Amino acid sequence: MEAGSREHSRALLMNLPNSITMSRIVMIPLLLWILSSHFPWQGNGAQEIAASVLFVLASITDGLDGYLARKWKQITTIGMLLDPLADKIMVTAALIALVNYNPDVVKVWIAVVIIGREFLISGLRSIAASEGFTIEASDLGKLKTVTQIVSVVSAILAHHWDAWQFGFIVIPVKWIAIAAIYFTVLVSTISAVDYFVGFWKKIDHASKDRRKSFVLSRRKSEGASNTN
User: Fold this and answer.
1) Which of 29, 31, 131, 133 lies deepest, with the highest CB count within 10 Å?
2) 6 with 65, same domain?
3) Do residues 106 and 95 make contact, with C-beta atoms less than 8 angstroms apart?
4) Whether 80 and 106 share a structural domain
């Protein structure tokens, strides 16, 4: 019986969606190594391309693991814990590394605002779960995720290229990175306010329901006492 229980736990842990989530966690130290001075191929754009490709792959796995878990009905407690944790660590690691790697684009205060927003939403969701309700991902939150990916990748590429030129077409990589990172700060701030307003409404409603339930139960108790 005990062996069967262990097998069941192992199967839940190592299903494909959870394995994909774990692969994203493994990518984090690899990304930090690529963006460090220890990476062997520097100065020719290989470092920036490798880091960008890795971050895009990690971002793809972010949506893929959740989609497969829902489709195959393989949602597990460990997956629900690891998935948002992997996302937060990946974004935090990338931004902290970029503060050192490309400080012209990613300032310290920008990293603090974006990372602070991630932990704020995580805290609100934890409180919401303890109160018995959930905070759904808003359209602003989804937009924030997209802009975050664009800003991180463009900031990495802007370390080596100011612009890409293809014939008459010029892509201003550095200006795209700067615009994307400031737009991410704006969307992150607005979406944080949106989440907080939604959280406040739900928790206020939950508090009113508890007070109403308490009053009703007290009246019933007093009615029973009077009857006796």
Assistant:
1) 31
2) yes
3) yes
4) no
113 occurs within a structural domain:
yes
Q: Same domain, yes or no, for 76 and 124? A: no
Identify the H or E element spanning 64: helix 46-71
d(CA 94, CA 187): 18
Domain that holds residue 162: 102-211
Instruction: Report the number of distinct structural domains present in the chain.
Output: 2
Q: DSSP strand E in the chain: where?
A: 164-166, 169-171
Q: Report phi then psi at 164, rounded to 5.
A: -110, 135
Query: What is the mean pLDDT for each group of 10 consecutive residues in the chain (228 residues)?
Result: 49 71 90 92 90 93 81 76 83 93 94 91 78 71 87 95 89 94 94 84 64 50 52
Furthest-apart CA atoms within the chain: distance in Å: 93
26 found inside a domain: yes
- C-alpha 174/C-alpha 168 separation (Å) is 18
pTM of whole model > 0.85?
no
Identify whether 90 is part of a domain: no
Cβ-in-10-Å burial (0-12, 13-18, 19+) of 177 comes to buried
Asked if residue 200 and residue 153 are part of one domain, the reply reads yes
Between β-strands 169-171 and 164-166, what pairing exists: parallel, antiparallel or unpaired? antiparallel
114 and 202 both lie in a single domain: yes
